[in-house]
């Protein structure tokens, strides 16, 4: 069989629906393949496979022997998934193409190298399956950029994440955090470390952040999935009739949009001040902080629906004392108007699109409760 004919067969195989996305991150139109595993993968994931000595080739550029093509025909993404993803826990995070490299690498290593999801009993049990995890993480200081070692203890039974300022637990914990409102999301660029993890939680009506990392990508991903396991157990307890389809998206989430905007006060005449904003679409909140690595929010704005008196539009504010940016965004709520300024038109459009996406989603009973709580606080 000629090489050109082999390439034609491979290109036909990769057009099949079951092979048309990367076997590991779901990226469309994979151009590479692991001829050891029989899966079609994207360029980014092919690099990780190469690091595992998984033997990869370009579908279009490399020479393909007949027997390798036959193996790809007989295996493919679906058959490989049936073996290597046979028993993925429902809470285990399956990375997407835009996720950080630590998540994608450890997903690939867990599947093909450590064979964590083949359904065989593991001994000792996998750390994220035990309902309890403890260890040392580097944590950013509340008032500075220094990262110090802190002991963390996660308990699924207690639904808590506890951390200690000293490795000696006898002096008591610095904080005991409820799993109820906890979120965890990878933030390597923001934190300045490839394994950076942001942990967000509620404390006395305030949103607080912890910024942590571990030198080992495997260990930080274990922490992430252990947190997801505890969150999943909590949600199953809190919503006993909820299906996995309903509950899994609520375990953890990435924020819809983050970035700097300038903000003025309620009279719209105060000086504009630069603030870091996070749009949490699940909680329908636009949170703002003095800086991107602040431990505590300065405030939050609930984003309801147009039917309930909320709207968003671009604007050119009349009073611009102190502002340096010119691309305006106005958020109207039943109580007041908020005016923000973006540095560039591209950022303005991204914020408008993200806010409109939240506005367009119907409010749930829990959303109405959250809205009433925010109004009561004011």
UniProtKB/TrEMBL annotation:
CDD domains: ArfGap_ADAP, PH1_ADAP, PH2_ADAP
PROSITE patterns recorded: ARFGAP, PH_DOMAIN
SMART domains, per the entry: ArfGap, PH
Pfam families: ArfGap, PH
Domain PH, residue spans: 130-232, 254-360
Keyword hit for Protease: no
Transmembrane segments: none
Domain Arf-GAP: 7-125
Keywords tagged on the record: Metal-binding, Zinc, Zinc-finger
Name of the protein in its database record: Arf-GAP with dual PH domain-containing protein 2
Organism encoding this protein: Ataeniobius toweri
């Amino acid at each position: 069989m000629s090489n050109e004919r082999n390439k034609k067969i491979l290109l036909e195989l990769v057009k099949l629906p079951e092979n048309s996305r990367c076997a590991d991150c779901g990226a469309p139109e994979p151009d590479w393949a692991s001829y050891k595993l029989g899966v079609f993968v994207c360029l980014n994931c092919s690099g990780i496979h190469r690091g595992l000595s998984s033997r990869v080739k370009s579908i279009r550029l490399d020479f393909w022997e007949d027997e390798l093509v036959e193996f790809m025909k007989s295996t493919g993404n679906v058959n490989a998934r049936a073996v290597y993803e046979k028993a993925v826990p429902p809470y285990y995070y399956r990375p997407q193409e835009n996720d950080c490299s630590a998540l994608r690498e450890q997903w690939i290593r867990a599947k093909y190298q450590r064979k964590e999801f083949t359904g065989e009993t593991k001994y000792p049990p996998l750390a994220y399956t035990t309902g309890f995890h403890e260890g040392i993480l580097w944590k950013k200081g509340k008032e500075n950029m220094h990262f110090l070692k802190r002991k963390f203890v996660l308990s699924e039974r207690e639904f808590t994440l506890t951390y200690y300022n000293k490795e000696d637990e006898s002096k008591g914990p610095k904080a005991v955090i409820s799993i109820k409102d906890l979120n965890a999301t990878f933030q390597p660029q923001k934190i300045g470390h490839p394994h950076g993890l942001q942990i967000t939680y509620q404390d006395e009506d305030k949103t607080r952040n912890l910024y942590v990392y571990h030198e080992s990508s495997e260990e930080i991903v274990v922490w992430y999935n252990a947190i997801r396991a505890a969150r999943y157990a909590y949600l199953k307890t809190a919503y006993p009739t909820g299906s996995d389809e309903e509950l899994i998206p609520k375990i953890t989430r990435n924020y819809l949009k983050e970035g700097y905007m300038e903000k003025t006060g309620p009279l719209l005449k105060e000086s504009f001040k630069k603030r870091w904003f996070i749009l949490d679409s699940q909680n329908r909140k636009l949170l703002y902080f003095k800086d991107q690595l602040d431990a505590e929010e300065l405030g939050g704005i609930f984003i309801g629906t147009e039917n309930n008196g909320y709207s968003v539009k671009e604007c050119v504010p009349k009073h611009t004392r102190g502002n340096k940016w010119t691309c305006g965004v106005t958020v109207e709520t039943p109580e007041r108007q908020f005016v923000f300024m973006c540095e560039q038109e591209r950022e303005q459009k991204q914020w408008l699109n993200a806010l409109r996406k939240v506005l367009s989603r119907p409010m749930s009973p829990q959303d109405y409760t959250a809205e009433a709580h925010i109004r009561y606080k004011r």
